[in-house]
Amino acid sequence: MSIVLKIKLTHTIEGITRVVLSMLLCVSITACSRQEVRHRAAAIADRAAMPVLEGENVNTLISDSGITRYRIKAQKWLVFDKADTPYWEFPNGIYLEKFNLNLEADATVEADYAYYNETAQRWKLVGNVKAMNLEGETFETPLLFWDQRSESVYSDSSIVITREKSIIKGIGFTSNQEMTKYTILRPTGVFPIKE
Asked: Considering the entire predicted model, what is its pTM?
């Protein structure tokens, strides 16, 4: 009888051991699988479409060769340097001052939207564009381009130039970047001529 009892006891201990080992194995597998579940952010599909820099309420000075050239004020400034053609975007508008060598603002420009092509060094200003030159003349147009390489400003849209004693209206114009020497391509307004 003691042999039968030992065999039954041995089978019972082996059964309990198997159950305990099975439970430990299940718990460890479950614990491991829980640890491997990780939340991952989606991969960036197109790095060129994502700005490398995003600034808000920006007020900055830009210099060239140690000389302050421009002041930019913008509610939002996005820099896309990984795009095929790197560019800056100002989706909520811009105010820009251009300084001469004496640090005097010789031109100011503001617009509802601005885009700057870094490679071509060309600005595109859109919506309620208003520029003022050193002589106090204001230029108002819905679209304006400024090419820094050729140091020229131009547009093929309507333009209104307000001077001290006259208003000039037209379609399209070209100018130097200081906006002091300009040509209206198709004048439409009446303006005085000195005799």
From this structure: 0.69
